[in-house]
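Lecture notes, unit on protein representations.

Consider one protein chain, 200 amino acids long.
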Amino acid sequence: MVHGYHVIFGAYGFWLPNDPRGSWSDFVGSWELFRFGPATKTDARRSVARAPHDRAQRLAAKEALKYPAVHFTGLQARAVGRGFATFLERSGVVLWACSILPEHVHLVVARHDYFVEKIVELLKGDATRRLSEEGLHPFADRPKRNGSLPKAFARNEWKVYLNNAEDLVRSIRYVECNPIKERKPAQRWPFVTPFDPRCV
Protein backbone atom coordinates (compact mmCIF):
# COMPACT_ATOMS: atom_id res chain seq x y z
CA MET A 1 0.00 0.00 0.00
CA VAL A 2 1.30 3.48 -0.88
CA HIS A 3 1.78 5.65 2.21
CA GLY A 4 3.62 8.55 0.62
CA TYR A 5 5.83 9.81 -2.18
CA HIS A 6 9.36 11.09 -2.64
CA VAL A 7 8.95 13.92 -5.13
CA ILE A 8 11.49 16.04 -6.97
CA PHE A 9 10.63 18.93 -9.24
CA GLY A 10 12.89 21.47 -10.83
CA ALA A 11 13.13 25.17 -11.33
CA TYR A 12 12.93 26.24 -14.96
CA GLY A 13 15.94 24.88 -16.85
CA PHE A 14 17.12 22.51 -14.13
CA TRP A 15 16.62 19.12 -15.81
CA LEU A 16 15.77 19.22 -19.48
CA PRO A 17 13.41 16.70 -21.14
CA ASN A 18 16.28 15.37 -23.26
CA ASP A 19 18.92 15.30 -20.52
CA PRO A 20 21.40 12.57 -21.57
CA ARG A 21 21.16 10.99 -18.10
CA GLY A 22 17.43 10.39 -18.57
CA SER A 23 14.37 12.47 -17.70
CA TRP A 24 10.76 12.08 -16.62
CA SER A 25 9.48 13.65 -19.85
CA ASP A 26 7.75 12.01 -22.81
CA PHE A 27 8.42 14.74 -25.34
CA VAL A 28 10.48 17.85 -26.07
CA GLY A 29 8.17 20.81 -26.68
CA SER A 30 10.78 23.25 -27.99
CA TRP A 31 12.42 22.96 -31.42
CA GLU A 32 15.54 24.68 -30.07
CA LEU A 33 15.91 21.92 -27.49
CA PHE A 34 14.85 19.10 -29.82
CA ARG A 35 17.96 19.81 -31.89
CA PHE A 36 19.86 18.24 -28.97
CA GLY A 37 17.82 15.03 -29.12
CA PRO A 38 14.40 13.57 -28.25
CA ALA A 39 13.04 13.05 -24.75
CA THR A 40 15.02 10.60 -22.63
CA LYS A 41 12.20 9.08 -20.58
CA THR A 42 13.38 6.94 -17.68
CA ASP A 43 11.55 5.00 -14.99
CA ALA A 44 14.63 4.75 -12.73
CA ARG A 45 13.74 4.66 -9.04
CA ARG A 46 17.15 5.96 -7.99
CA SER A 47 18.84 9.22 -8.89
CA VAL A 48 20.62 9.30 -12.23
CA ALA A 49 22.31 12.62 -11.43
CA ARG A 50 25.78 11.04 -11.28
CA ALA A 51 25.32 8.87 -14.39
CA PRO A 52 28.11 9.29 -16.98
CA HIS A 53 27.00 11.55 -19.82
CA ASP A 54 28.04 14.19 -22.33
CA ARG A 55 28.19 17.19 -20.02
CA ALA A 56 29.11 19.62 -22.82
CA GLN A 57 25.99 18.61 -24.77
CA ARG A 58 23.80 19.02 -21.68
CA LEU A 59 25.14 22.52 -21.00
CA ALA A 60 24.84 23.49 -24.67
CA ALA A 61 21.16 22.51 -24.58
CA LYS A 62 20.66 24.78 -21.55
CA GLU A 63 22.09 27.67 -23.56
CA ALA A 64 19.31 27.10 -26.13
CA LEU A 65 16.55 27.74 -23.58
CA LYS A 66 14.24 30.68 -24.23
CA TYR A 67 14.97 32.10 -20.76
CA PRO A 68 17.95 31.73 -18.44
CA ALA A 69 17.80 28.73 -16.11
CA VAL A 70 16.38 29.69 -12.70
CA HIS A 71 18.58 29.60 -9.60
CA PHE A 72 16.55 30.57 -6.54
CA THR A 73 18.28 32.85 -4.06
CA GLY A 74 17.77 32.36 -0.32
CA LEU A 75 15.10 35.09 -0.31
CA GLN A 76 13.29 33.42 -3.20
CA ALA A 77 13.50 29.99 -1.52
CA ARG A 78 11.88 31.43 1.61
CA ALA A 79 9.08 32.91 -0.52
CA VAL A 80 8.59 29.50 -2.17
CA GLY A 81 8.32 28.00 1.32
CA ARG A 82 5.69 30.54 2.32
CA GLY A 83 3.74 29.63 -0.81
CA PHE A 84 3.96 25.95 0.12
CA ALA A 85 2.70 26.76 3.63
CA THR A 86 -0.36 28.54 2.19
CA PHE A 87 -1.27 25.52 0.08
CA LEU A 88 -0.68 23.01 2.88
CA GLU A 89 -2.85 24.94 5.33
CA ARG A 90 -5.67 25.19 2.79
CA SER A 91 -5.52 21.59 1.56
CA GLY A 92 -4.58 19.50 4.58
CA VAL A 93 -1.76 17.85 2.61
CA VAL A 94 1.05 16.67 4.90
CA LEU A 95 4.75 17.06 4.09
CA TRP A 96 7.14 14.89 6.09
CA ALA A 97 10.26 16.47 4.57
CA CYS A 98 11.10 19.46 2.37
CA SER A 99 14.28 20.90 0.89
CA ILE A 100 14.07 23.94 -1.37
CA LEU A 101 17.36 24.18 -3.25
CA PRO A 102 18.51 26.74 -5.82
CA GLU A 103 17.56 24.56 -8.81
CA HIS A 104 15.08 21.99 -7.49
CA VAL A 105 12.80 20.91 -4.66
CA HIS A 106 12.73 17.62 -2.75
CA LEU A 107 9.62 16.57 -0.80
CA VAL A 108 8.29 13.58 1.05
CA VAL A 109 4.51 13.85 0.80
CA ALA A 110 1.95 11.80 2.71
CA ARG A 111 -0.72 10.07 0.66
CA HIS A 112 -3.78 12.30 0.21
CA ASP A 113 -7.09 12.39 -1.66
CA TYR A 114 -5.33 14.44 -4.36
CA PHE A 115 -3.12 12.64 -6.85
CA VAL A 116 0.52 13.48 -6.16
CA GLU A 117 0.81 15.17 -9.56
CA LYS A 118 -2.01 17.56 -8.56
CA ILE A 119 -0.31 18.29 -5.24
CA VAL A 120 2.87 19.28 -7.06
CA GLU A 121 0.94 21.45 -9.53
CA LEU A 122 -0.82 23.30 -6.69
CA LEU A 123 2.40 23.72 -4.66
CA LYS A 124 4.09 25.27 -7.70
CA GLY A 125 1.09 27.55 -8.22
CA ASP A 126 1.06 28.92 -4.67
CA ALA A 127 4.85 29.26 -4.65
CA THR A 128 4.73 31.21 -7.93
CA ARG A 129 1.98 33.47 -6.59
CA ARG A 130 4.04 34.19 -3.48
CA LEU A 131 7.16 34.97 -5.51
CA SER A 132 5.13 37.45 -7.61
CA GLU A 133 3.43 39.07 -4.60
CA GLU A 134 6.78 39.62 -2.89
CA GLY A 135 8.41 41.01 -6.04
CA LEU A 136 10.82 38.07 -6.17
CA HIS A 137 9.69 36.21 -9.28
CA PRO A 138 12.88 35.32 -11.23
CA PHE A 139 11.31 36.55 -14.49
CA ALA A 140 9.69 39.70 -13.09
CA ASP A 141 11.65 41.73 -15.64
CA ARG A 142 10.65 39.49 -18.59
CA PRO A 143 6.85 39.69 -18.90
CA LYS A 144 5.19 38.11 -21.92
CA ARG A 145 3.12 40.18 -24.33
CA ASN A 146 -0.05 39.36 -22.39
CA GLY A 147 1.55 40.58 -19.14
CA SER A 148 1.96 37.14 -17.57
CA LEU A 149 5.38 35.93 -16.48
CA PRO A 150 7.24 32.86 -17.75
CA LYS A 151 7.03 29.85 -15.45
CA ALA A 152 9.62 29.71 -12.67
CA PHE A 153 9.24 25.92 -12.38
CA ALA A 154 9.72 23.19 -14.95
CA ARG A 155 6.80 20.99 -15.99
CA ASN A 156 6.09 17.66 -14.32
CA GLU A 157 7.94 15.95 -11.49
CA TRP A 158 9.86 12.80 -10.63
CA LYS A 159 8.22 10.61 -8.00
CA VAL A 160 8.76 7.36 -6.16
CA TYR A 161 5.94 5.57 -4.34
CA LEU A 162 6.81 4.77 -0.72
CA ASN A 163 5.12 1.63 0.57
CA ASN A 164 6.37 1.18 4.15
CA ALA A 165 7.91 2.96 7.12
CA GLU A 166 11.44 1.93 6.12
CA ASP A 167 11.05 3.54 2.66
CA LEU A 168 9.61 6.68 4.23
CA VAL A 169 12.35 7.04 6.86
CA ARG A 170 15.08 6.53 4.23
CA SER A 171 13.52 9.11 1.89
CA ILE A 172 12.98 11.65 4.68
CA ARG A 173 16.63 11.31 5.69
CA TYR A 174 17.70 11.73 2.06
CA VAL A 175 15.65 14.91 1.63
CA GLU A 176 16.83 16.37 4.94
CA CYS A 177 20.49 15.72 4.02
CA ASN A 178 20.21 17.10 0.49
CA PRO A 179 21.08 20.73 1.34
CA ILE A 180 24.08 19.54 3.36
CA LYS A 181 25.32 17.53 0.37
CA GLU A 182 25.21 20.77 -1.60
CA ARG A 183 27.20 22.49 1.19
CA LYS A 184 24.24 24.51 2.37
CA PRO A 185 22.70 24.75 5.85
CA ALA A 186 20.12 22.17 6.93
CA GLN A 187 16.56 23.37 6.40
CA ARG A 188 13.81 23.40 9.02
CA TRP A 189 10.44 24.42 7.61
CA PRO A 190 7.59 25.10 10.09
CA PHE A 191 5.05 23.49 7.75
CA VAL A 192 6.81 20.08 7.83
CA THR A 193 5.10 17.49 10.05
CA PRO A 194 7.44 15.17 12.00
CA PHE A 195 7.05 11.61 10.78
CA ASP A 196 5.91 8.96 13.26
CA PRO A 197 6.61 5.44 11.90
CA ARG A 198 3.99 3.99 14.29
CA CYS A 199 1.27 5.66 12.20
CA VAL A 200 2.12 3.61 9.09
